[in-house]
Amino acid sequence: MKKLKYIPLIALVIGCSSTKGNEELSLPFYSEATFTAQWIDESDPAYEQIHTISDFQFVNQEGEMITNETFDGKVYVANFFFTLCPTVCPKMEANLSLIQNEFKGNDQVKILSHTVMPWADSVARLKEYAQQNDINSDQWHLVTGEQEELYKMGRLAYFVDEGFGKGVTDLDDFLHTENIVLIDQKRRIRGIYNGTLKLEMKRMIEDIRQLLGE
Predict the structure, then answer these.
(1) Mind listing the pLDDT tens digit for each residue in 146-181?
(2) In 6-102, where do the E strands start and end?
(3) CB neighbours of 13 closer than 8 A, spacing ≥ 6?
(4) Is beta strand 109-115 parallel, antiparallel or unpaired with respect to 75-81?
(5) Can you list the domains of the chain with their CATH numbers?
(6) Alpha carbon of 151 to those of 34, 54, 202: distances in Å?
(7) What SS3 class is residue 40?
(8) Dihedrals φ, ψ of 67, to 5°?
(9) Contacts of residue 90, Cβ cutoff 8 Å, sequence gap at least 6
(10) What is the rounded CA–CA span in Å between residue 176 and residue 114?
(11) HEC readout, 86-141
(12) Which helix (H) or strand (E) holds 201?
């Protein structure tokens, strides 16, 4: 029996780009689940210890194998959803569509949406969902796979479940979160956003542009 638990977003903004005079600061790095912002220079020994997204392998809505190598050298945003979700997920989908439209045709920007209900979200179901929501499979990957691997990525790689280690301690507990994370060209977390708010998508777009310009 699957345990359903909804995980609300605690904080809306955890770090973003900022300016000091005419000098724009780089986006911070995030290396653990509290999403404490860190600005680390390449000359700092800690630079080599920055958290990076672990290797993964899933299947997308086209039945294609998608791995971490699919995103090598690219900026991408990642979230977790399920197609039967009636509340939060439709808002996230609509807001991520803004990202898709803003960077349409830009091969350097991708979206990666992981289902948290792989026992229901088959490749065929993800394909149907993509068609219903005008999702471009070249830019936006809806992926499924083994529940254990999907949940491990959500909680231990992307840190999207802010309840993990608090009220949630079991990797098998249902994962549902409003968090969307921004990953840079070297697989490092550079931003976290409330996926239900359009204003947050505006901030994400600005941050993506900054990463593309670095």
Answers:
(1) 999 999 999 999 998 865 444 445 556 668 788 999
(2) 19-20, 23-24, 57-60, 65-67, 75-81
(3) 193, 200, 203
(4) parallel
(5) 19-213 (3.40.30.10)
(6) 18, 13, 28
(7) coil
(8) -130, 175
(9) none
(10) 11
(11) CCHHHHHHHHHHHHHHHCCCCCCEEEEEEECCCCCCCHHHHHHHHHHCCCCCCCEE
(12) helix 198-213
What average pLDDT does range 89-112 have in this prediction? 96
Neighbours of 60 (CB within 10 A): 22
**CA dist., res. 90 & res. 110, Å (int):** 19
CA atoms of 16 and 27, how far apart (whole Å)? 6
How far apart are the C-alpha atoms of 29 and 16, rounded to whole Å? Answer: 10
Query: How far is it, in rounded angstroms, from Cα 51 to Cα 29?
Result: 8
Whole-prediction pTM: 0.85
Average pLDDT over residues 8-33: 60
168 alpha-carbon distance from chain centroid: 20
Phi, psi dihedral angles at 190 (to 5 degrees): -120, -5
Indicate the average pLDDT of the chain: 87
Residue 133 carries which side chain, given as an amino acid letter? Answer: N
> Using an 8 Å Cβ cutoff, are 100 and 88 in contact?
no
Q: Give the DSSP H/E element, type plus range, for residue 150.
A: helix 147-152
CA dist., res. 112 & res. 99, Å (int): 12
Given its phi and psi angles, is residue 213 left (phi above 0), alpha (psi -120 to 50 degrees) or beta?
alpha
Single-letter residue type at 20: K
